[in-house]
Design brief:
99 residues; mainly alpha; 4 helices; elongated
């Protein structure tokens, strides 16, 4: 008799989305801004965490392992993390480049 294959762990997309939202685009945009120095970089810096929070919410919404309430919870958490990261990155950018 063959033993069944071990169950593969599914990716916790809600957690991944929250982490991605928390990290945001800040490190990459520091490099872009210093090299190119475009005003557009500030706009991307401002909206990056929110967009990545939305991506985390989408990933949580399509995670089939979660029930309905868990999907809503992870999606909401991802969006909130992205929104909370927004002012943090704004203040960091102001400290680095001056107002």
């Amino acid at each position: 008799m063959t033993s069944p294959a071990p169950a593969r762990r599914a990716v916790p997309w809600g957690t991944v989305g929250c982490l991605v939202a928390a990290l945001g685009w800040f490190p990459g945009l520091v490099v872009v801004w210093k090299i190119v120095e475009l005003e557009m970089a500030m706009g991307l810096l401002a909206f990056g965490p929110v967009l990545l929070g939305a991506l985390g919410a989408l990933l949580a919404a399509v995670d089939r392992r979660l029930d309905g309430a868990s999907r809503v919870g992870w999606a909401t958490t991802s969006l909130v993390v992205g929104l909370l990261a927004l002012p943090l990155y704004w203040f960091i950018a102001m400290a680095l480049w001056g107002a």
